[in-house]
Design goal:
Blueprint lengths: L1 H15 L20 H15 L5 H6 L3 H7 L3
Helix pairs in contact: 1-2
């Protein structure tokens, strides 16, 4: 599970084009300037496409932070 958590965080950092170590479990979406609604949709799509992690759209829309996203991803 730890490895999957790291993969998800690395994917988020890659898609947002922020330095490694910028995103942590405690990161709130509103705290990251690059994490807008379009980026959010891309992240959810790439989680499924690359890592096989599926989060229903209704739940994905309501996410407020990385810890919540990880919980929804089952990590």
């Amino acid at each position: 599970m730890y490895e999957m958590k790291e993969k998800i965080i690395a994917l988020i950092e890659e898609l947002l084009k922020v330095p490694a170590g910028t995103i942590t479990e405690d990161t709130q979406i509103e705290d990251v300037e690059q994490w807008d609604s379009l980026a959010h949709v891309m992240i959810i799509g790439e989680l499924e496409g690359r890592l096989g992690v599926s989060i229903p759209l209704e739940e994905a829309i309501e996410l407020t932070g990385v810890r919540e996203l990880l919980e929804k991803a089952g990590v």
